[in-house]
Amino acid sequence: KLLLTTARPDANQNNLRSAAYESIMELLKSSPRDCYAIVQETTVTIIARLEELLHHRQSSNEKTSGGNYNDLQSLLCATLQCVIKKMQQGDAIQISDTVMSAFLMMMSLTSSPVRYRRTLS
Hints:
Blueprint: H1 2-6, H2 16-29, H3 36-60, H4 67-86, H5 89-110, H6 113-120
Helix pairs in contact: 2-4, 3-4, 3-5
């Protein structure tokens, strides 16, 4: 239900989206081992949302799209960090290329070309 809340049209109002993602992070941090399937599902959802956001950002050809974009990107990255900490090593390795690609895309969209090239070197 919390993931659905983050996608609501009115999620930007009254810090609803932020509160929902923060609640997700707290639930994941304290989740027992028998809820590992939920950690996996949440990881897939967060990565998909981050990729969707980045592709939308890339296709819009805008360098800045306001605080909502930056806030959502920050919330997704924080949530992704939280779920990666809970993942088993084998699962984390399976998603590592996808996560790294998303981070590189983020850097390319927010950094100057010179800084991005230095990072890839």
